[in-house]
Structures are given as C-alpha cells and as structure tokens.
Automatic annotation (TrEMBL):
CDD domains: F-box_SF (cd09917). This is F-box domain-containing protein. InterPro entries: F-box_dom. It comes from the Eukaryota. It comes from Panaeolus cyanescens.
C-alpha cells in the first residue's frame, strides 16, 4: 500500500453506503459516481422508492385519468431514464402516484387517439417487480378524492391491473386511497399481499376465482356509509354464501384500522338540511347493532393493534346528537367482542385472548360547552373497554378526543402495560 494512502475495505464502504436513506437522492447519486463497483448498487438504492405527482383530469368520455402536470418535468425525466437504461426499472420496488390536481373537464382537448400517451402510463408499463404500489391524493389539496372506481377511465384501470399481474409474485403492499369502491376481487391473484389500504369496502356479489386476500395490515377509511356499514361490508367479504366464495380472510391480521370520517360529515349535513323537519331524524343511527353479531375480535388471534377513528362535524351538534351517540355505540359494539377472560381464571384452557394495543381517536367540530363535554356518551365504549382491560384482553389503550372550534382539547384514558 502506498504511503499516506488510506485503504477502506470494500465491504465496509458498502455497509456504510447501505445506511443512506433511499429518500436522500443527492447523496445516493454522488455515491454512485465514486466507482463502477458501487454504481449499480447505488443506482438500485436511488430507484428503489419512486414518488411521482400527476394531474387527475377528465378525458373526453368524462372519466378520470392521469396526465402530466404542465411545467413539471419529473415524470418526463424518470421516463427518459427508464427507457435509456431499461435495467433501472427492475430496481423499483415501491411506486407511489400522488394526484395533485383535479380539473373538472378536459372536453376541449383533441381526440385521445391523436394525443401522445401520458408519461405515467408508459412508466407503469415498464414496472415488473414491485413490492408496494399506492395511488393517493395530495393530503394538502381540497380536491374531491377519492373517486369512485366506475368513474375511472378504462385505460387507467387496465394499466393498474396489468401492473398487478406483472408483479403478482412480489407485491406485498397496496394502497388505493384515491379510488373508492375498488373491487377487491382484482387483488385475489396477489398471494403475498400483506398490507391493504382502501377507502371503502364493497361486496360485488359475483362468482369469484380461487384465492383469498389475507392481509396482515388492513386499513379501511370508508367514505360512503354510517359506521356500522363498515363492519357489514367487511363481514360480507369474509363470509361465504351458497354460490360465492369469500373474498377475504383475516386469519393472520395483526393490525386493523377502521375510519369513517366523511360519512358522518355527510350525514350531519343531510340531517340539518332536511326541508321536512317532521321526518324522523336518522332512526338507523340509534338502532341496536344486531347486524354485526358475527363480528368477533376474539377470532383474530394475531391481532395486536386496533385503531378506530372518525370525525363529527356540525356547528349545532350537542352531546345528545344521534350521530355522537351512534359513533360511541359503534365503538362499544366492536370492543364488546373482545374475550372477557380474567387472567386469574386458571380453569380456562382455550386459546389465550389477543394482547391488543388499542387507539381510539374522535375529532369533534362544534361549539361544545363544558356541560356538553361532560355529557358526551363515551361510557358506551369506555365501560366495555374497562372490562376488556380488566379481563386481560389488552396491554395498552389510548383514547384521544379532539374538540375543535372550541377551547378544549382532551387526551384521556391511557392504560399503560402493567409492570
């Protein structure tokens, strides 16, 4: 070794480079230029996770599709790199599309048959070995996402489905928060899917091919129905009938999240905009939850995390409002299915209850007074929650109550692990 030269073993340099975050594109790009030996590995890290922004627009048929954003060259540059060096596409493991713009119409555009294919469609056709795919809306945008699946253009639906087919053996995570009512049977050929994030569940009532969706993590943010409907639709997907196989199984579910924010907002708006005030105000909200009798958390032996979240919006809402009572009853009905077995019960020889970590979050927009807050019917789920904790079914529980548009912000009922 020449004098004054410092030698660093190759494997040590490689280990150091492995700690560079995939989001640090500048450092990864610089490291790829250090030597030919590191070029491929650094380029692989550089292209491992790709996030692209696209415009969500209407085509001439009135359906929603994706288009390039004017003045933004990121997608064009990515396409140029992938077509110049096709091996780069094989490095991409996670591909995330973010819809950042939503235009009401593109009816003035020339015929699609004479228009160039948007760059995003050409990129999607090059991806073959993804482990994760997501299509979401910009969280800072006020645009009306998600969009119903039936309003998505056939070109976009075919591009996504073809992508799933090419990556069927490798894909493990799917998040389609920009598409509402996505038919889950289109995911049945993904045998290794572990994480599924969808804004709504639907039962298509069609004969389905073999194969079950069996996720470890399921996130449902239902934007269409009142709270109990989430469980109804979930049960339909889990339950076989005389002519249909189940679409999904939760035999290995570890984390379950159920959110119904916009449904409650819509119901509140409808309730207060009724012209005929003699109508019974939303009687279905105060009916017993007999329709979820078959939903039982005790069956999910691997469940370690449960999240229930929602938002109630009304300037005139009070603690006695039927939506408030419905939300609390919904959460109580879910928690009441936890196994009630005390830790001191030595005679019990069956399966041990899941040690569950629970997080409940309720955001309430309204002019609540201190009297209203004290009268909120939270006992409908805190009572069963206390029983579940006393029975040894939980290791940790946290409830966050966020009162917005008033001067109260409450965090309460935090049960830490004993010992």
């Amino acid at each position: 070794m020449a004098q004054n030269n410092i030698f660093i073993p190759f494997d040590l340099v490689e280990k150091i480079f492995s700690h560079i975050p995939t989001t640090d594109h500048a450092t990864l790009s610089a490291c790829s230029q250090t030597s030919k030996s590191f070029r491929d590995s650094m380029q692989g890290r550089l292209f491992e996770v790709i996030n692209v922004e696209c415009a969500v627009v209407r085509d001439r048929r009135g359906d929603f599709t994706l288009a390039d954003i004017k003045g933004v060259d990121t997608v064009h540059q990515l396409l140029s790199s992938l077509t110049t060096k096709p091996t780069l596409a094989s490095y991409i493991r996670s591909f995330n599309i973010i819809g950042t713009e939503l235009f009401p119409s593109r009816m003035t555009m020339r015929d699609p048959l004479g228009s160039p294919t948007p760059s995003i469609f050409r990129i999607l056709s090059l991806l073959t070995s993804l482990t994760a795919f997501s299509f979401s809306g910009d969280p800072t945008s006020r645009d009306l996402l998600p969009i119903k699946e039936r309003h998505i253009s056939s070109d976009l639906k075919e591009a996504i489905q073809s992508l799933f087919m090419r990556s069927s053996a490798s894909i493990k995570s799917v998040a389609l928060t920009a598409i509402r009512d996505f038919p889950l049977e289109k995911l049945r050929h993904l045998p290794n899917i572990e994480t599924l994030h969808v804004p709504s569940l639907i039962d298509t009532h069609i004969a389905l091919p073999p194969g079950l969706i069996n996720p470890k993590v399921l996130h449902i943010g239902d934007t269409r129905h009142h709270d109990s409907k989430i469980l109804v639709n979930l049960l339909r997907l889990l339950t076989p009938t005389h002519s249909h196989r189940p679409t999904m199984t939760l035999s290995r579910i570890e984390s379950l999240c159920m959110i119904s924010p916009y449904a409650s907002q819509n119901e509140t708006h409808q309730h207060h905009s009724m012209k005929n005030y003699s109508m019974p105000p939303m009687q279905h909200l105060n009916t017993p939850y007999n329709d979820i009798a078959n939903f039982n958390l005790a069956r999910f032996h691997n469940l370690a995390s449960l999240t229930l979240s929602g938002t109630l919006m009304s300037r005139t809402m009070s603690s006695a409002h039927p939506i408030v009572e419905s939300r609390c009853r919904w959460m109580g009905a879910i928690l009441s299915t936890l196994p009630q077995i005390t830790v001191q019960d030595s005679s019990y020889t069956g399966p041990q209850p899941p040690l569950l970590s629970l997080f409940i979050e309720i955001g309430i927009y309204g002019a609540f007074t201190p009297a209203d807050i004290s009268a909120l019917p939270f006992g409908q789920f805190t009572d069963v929650l206390n029983a579940a904790i006393d029975g040894g079914a939980m290791i940790k529980a946290r409830i966050d109550l966020h009162f917005l548009n008033c001067k109260h912000r409450v965090k309460s009922f935090i049960n830490e692990p004993k010992g």
